[in-house]
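Sanity check

After download, print the first record. It should look like this:
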Amino acid sequence: MVATFAQRMEAEVARSLLETAGIDAWIHADDLAGMLPLMGTTSGGVTVLVGEEDVADAVGVLGDLADADAASPRPVPSTPTSRYVLYIAAGALGFVAFFVLAVLTS
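Expected structure tokens:
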């Protein structure tokens, strides 16, 4: 793990910079491939991963950014509000699925 970001877009920029520098990088995010971006903030953020042999080089590449704030790992907000939004979205999805099944079976 090199860095953790609150948003997938920030992690994608970091991954692109690393791959431009010749470092293989991957993104680990629990946000359903970007369809539920709020889910990333409740599960610990979006993580940029590199191989163990490339960690020092990757930290150097991300540290060389003109805007150091954009590359520095930031704490992922873990507010109750973001969790409640996820729970409400999941509940609404369940309700819609139930409604669709009820209409189809009647």
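If your output differs, re-run the checksum step. Summary of this record's structure: The mean pLDDT is 74.
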